[in-house]
Specification:
The complex is a heterodimer of chains A (318) and B (184). Chain A is 37% helix and 19% strand. Chain A has seven helices and twelve strands. Chain B is mostly helical and 184 residues long. Chain B is built from seven helices and no strands. The chains are: A alpha+beta (318), B mainly alpha (184). Chain A binds chain B through residues 238-240, 242-244, 254, 256, 296, 298-301, and chain B through 82, 86-87, 135-141.
């Protein structure tokens, strides 16, 4: 997991770049206005009335005051109008992207994880994974956003603005990464108990590397190589796991929980709640509610030996 | 109640021939020439035939104690509802309305309405189609199922029933002034 914090000022794509430009524009103008207001305030404090100055308002004094107030109102209006124009221009610019033949991903927000589906004209080449989006560098990708339960919001600060995922309604978002890297994403609409643990990673790779990754994800799960792994698969298929999860290449094909076909290739488990290590995975499977209270996964109630075999098998799903 | 298992089920085909189809659906196909006299008499009088006075009894105290943890627990009931949809119970029980499997929202409990009876139905399965979910659902899930199934039958307190469902539902809204139904 990248140690870098999410930041809309550390941009890696054209959309996020436009938003960053707008941010700096607003920041610059507001800073100038703030400094000007403070300077006038200080000047007023320093320049006191002289003792012999009359308190009576004069005609000329009132004219001068009126001119200053009028100029201030006009300047404020002009700046706000400028902000409005800049904001609308940025908003429209977010959709201006070269999209010919772009790859389409369907992203479904669920409590509390992300289902990622790489669409393909051939159904057998569709790839389903979870909580980790790989994209080719320099190519636009269209995200079709859906929600299965409540409203979520898709936000990768380094790549684009936020876009809500609304049940029963498709929304869309273009993203493009201009440089390789790992970018953090986060659900940005409060969606329940584990909203904060509904994270994901966007991994931008050179196109050749990306294609190799996608081809790897298309493959079925590897066959277990050792007795321990074989026993783990038995535990998986004979127990309650199979009721919710898919492992392609086995009889497990349920779509309630995340697809586990290539679980070991992901960097995190439980939607970014923990790094994907053996210890964390074992703790998660043994008692999901301890790692992520309220998570939709029940406690599988497995004997320790079965649990260890199961974790060994899951770790082999590269 | 018109029949419950291999021994007291009515001969479906013979009943269907007499134009009685409503209660026969889902109880299998017993190619017997004529239904028992008691059923014919009950049918003619438009009343319900009771073939057996046997009733499912309560379970052991441990199960009873565990069931009580789930029955008054709104979270457990809503989890049960989620499993009910996720595991395609609707495929046979159609949101509790009944289709291939019996209805769950009426007051007929073929194998008993006590939590232990319903748990046994889920874990052990029943003849004529109800599969066994032993090992497929965890103990906790089984009890959550039980709580939800009991809520479908109107056996639970109104305030623990799920407030909303994503599917169309023939039941009255939980907050309505519907009288609690008496179980059989």
């Amino acid at each position: 997991m990248s140690e870098k914090l999410n930041s809309a000022l550390d941009t890696a794509g054209p959309q996020a770049g436009r938003i960053e430009d707008l941010w700096w524009l607003l920041f610059g103008f507001c800073a100038v206005v703030f400094v000007a207001v403070m300077a006038v305030l200080v000047a007023a404090l320093v320049r006191r009335r002289t003792p012999d100055e009359s308190m009576e308002p004069t005609y000329a004094g009132q004219r001068t005051a009126l001119r200053y107030v009028g100029a201030g109102v006009l300047a404020t209006g002009a700046i706000l109008l400028g902000f409005l124009i800049a904001s609308v221009t940025t908003d429209r610019g977010l959709d201006e992207i070269e999209t010919g033949g772009a790859r389409v991903l369907t992203i479904t927000g669920r409590q509390w994880w992300w289902e990622i589906r790489y669409e393909d004209a051939r159904p057998d080449r569709v790839v389903v994974t979870a909580n980790e989006i790989h994209v080719p560098v320099g190519q636009p990708v269209l995200l079709r956003l859906r929600a299965s339960d409540v409203i979520h919001s898709f936000w990768v600060p380094s790549l684009a603005g936020k876009r809500d995922l609304i049940p029963g309604r498709d929304t869309g978002l273009w993203i493009q990464a201009n440089r390789p890297g790992t970018f953090q994403g986060q659900c940005a609409e409060f969606c329940g108990y584990q909203h904060a643990h509904m994270r994901f990673l966007v991994i931008a790779q050179p196109p050749a590397e990306f294609d190799a990754w996608l081809e790897g994800q298309r493959a079925s799960a590897p066959e277990p190589a050792t007795d321990e792994e074989r026993r783990g698969r038995e535990v998986f298929l004979a127990g309650s796991c199979v009721m919710c999860h898919t492992i392609r290449g086995t009889a497990a094909g349920s779509i309630v929980g995340p697809d586990l076909t290539h679980l070991a290739s992901r960097q995190t488990i439980a939607a970014g709640a923990r790094p994907n290590t053996r210890d964390h995975l074992a703790a998660w499977v043994a008692d999901p509610q301890r790692t992520k209270p309220g998570a939709r996964m029940p406690v599988p109630e497995l004997p320790p030996a079965d649990l260890q075999a199961l974790v060994t098998y899951l770790r082999s799903l590269r | 109640m018109i029949g419950d298992d291999f021994y007291s089920s009515p001969p479906a085909r013979a009943l269907a021939a007499r134009g009685r189809t409503g209660n026969v659906c889902g109880y299998g196909d017993y190619a017997q020439d004529s239904p028992p006299a008691e059923i014919v008499r009950a049918d003619a009088a438009s009343r319900t035939a009771v073939l057996s006075e046997l009733r499912a009894g309560p379970g052991n105290p441990t199960e009873r104690k565990r069931a009580s943890l789930y029955d008054d627990n709104a979270w457990a009931v809503s989890e049960g509802q989620r499993w009910f949809q996720a595991f395609n119970c609707n495929g046979c029980h159609a949101n509790g309305g009944g289709c291939i499997g019996p209805a769950l929202m009426d007051d007929v409990w073929i194998y008993g309405f006590e939590p232990e009876n319903i748990r046994a139905t889920i874990i052990e399965g029943r003849p004529n189609g109800m599969p066994s979910f032993r090992g497929r659902v965890t103990e906790q899930q089984a009890w959550e199922f039980v709580a939800y199934v009991r809520s479908l039958g109107g056996l639970l307190r109104k305030d623990v029933e799920p407030g909303r469902s994503d599917s169309t539902n023939a039941r009255l809204a939980p907050q309505s002034l519907q009288k609690p139904r008496q179980s059989e």
